[in-house]
Structures
1.
Amino acid sequence: MTKYLFGLLMLVATLAQADRIRDLTTVQGVRENSLIGYGLVVGLDGTGDQTTQTPFTTQTLNNMLSQLGITVPAGTNMQLKNVAAVMVTAKYPAFARSGQNIDVVVSSMGNAKSLRGGTLLMTPLKGVDNQVYALAQGNILVGGAGASAGGSSVQVNQLNGGRITNGAVIERELPGTFGSGNMISLQLNNDDFTLAQQITDTINRSRGYGSASALDARTIQIRVPTGNSSQVRLLADIQNLEVNMPAQDAKVIINSRTGSVVMNQEVTLDTCAVAQGNLSVTVNRQAQVSQPDTPFGGGQTVVTPQTQIDLRQNGGALQRVNASANLNNVVRALNTLGASPMELMSILQSMQTAGCLRAKVEII
């Protein structure tokens, strides 16, 4: 009974580590493209650009009105409060077709206080080749909220940016070469020679040996059989295959901006000793008023600053860190040091230099 239970547990552990090929790779050439445009948002409740400080808003409005047959007299100083100049960005999806709707993000580029309640006017979205691929227009949804009265204000989230769901229509299609060749290339999300070989072996076992070959740690080339009229069906079958994940590289990620430390399950420790002391410097400055002894003695009142500096160093005792073979023991060992996240960053770097931290340390 024990043997069967042990085998069942091993099978469950193996299945738990299996991932689909679609989650580990992308198809080369099948990707999104960035679009960008410049436009105007109207209908704001007095929260638009101050046109005296953002002349490009007035210039854009004059150009738009002239295209609509309205001529603004030269020298007119338009004091607008309900108009804002914005940048519009979107992602052109792979295999997009004319007439398809995509989401757009609208961001203020002037000094508008809020885009809430605004409407984006028709804005052409261009690609890197300066060609128009989509037209955006619609009502903006702003996720933030704010209020002000009597010189006081409160704000939740960002008010100068919003989103328009299905706010742009594809007008131009990109030429594609998918399905025209006899080779398909898969690209791994992360460089890994072991994983590339395992994916190749899995495809060969399913489709026949010689169907796939790993070119390097990121690229896997798949041969399309002769007479196969649908590469879509071929990829659909391959992407749903499951691959047992190999052991990952032991890594410790340190975010110096937020003070966070993240490590994966492969991190281990060797026995070492760590001494970490806290050095605190306190500067106390007070002003002391010195007055003359007699009211009419001819003296002057003088303010004399007095500064007191206190230097303290706490802790610093040498502590033993036991060897740890799994992540739980690593966390328990590091917690015994009682170090803050900022101190832990320096400790981990020193441990790696000393050779007792079995992991790569990356600072982002």
2.
Amino acid sequence: MKKHLAGILVTSALIGLSGCQSANVKEADTKPKMNNQDLFEVAHEGRYYIFDDFKVYQEFLTVGETSYRKVIIGGGPKGETLVYGLRSEDKKKLSGIASEEMFKGTMLAAEEFYGEIRAEDGRLYVFDSLDDMKAMRMVGEAPYRYTDIGSGPEKQTVVYVLNKHNKKHKPVMLMEKFKKHYGL
């Protein structure tokens, strides 16, 4: 009887432990993933397009349009029409869209942030800081930069935007991120 009772207690303890572990996994799996690791912006034909997904951004560059979008008349940095290119999972959301939240400043960027602004002149401005990206967007120029002429896709000039803290160093890690995005 004692052996039988001891076996029940051990089995109950093991079931309790495994139940706790699976509950923790479910909690972690159901936590919503923030899409704040990258941001892409394009000034094009009087509109300002913003994307939080590289695939949607690339589709826009290929086709010139996005399948799903949220449009705000006069919402761009210089009063132009603002167009958020959306992923299919974001198309029904009224709020909580990462590109919109980061653009407005209500969502912080991930620690390992990557950003691009594609200017009307064809230059690609590349960032590892959302704050540097915001400053460039507002001023229209990057005071600290490392320019790599003809190194982008289609031989575009790539401007790696720096700040007062890293202005004296070649942005090797940022250059590697850029090349990885484009398979260069």
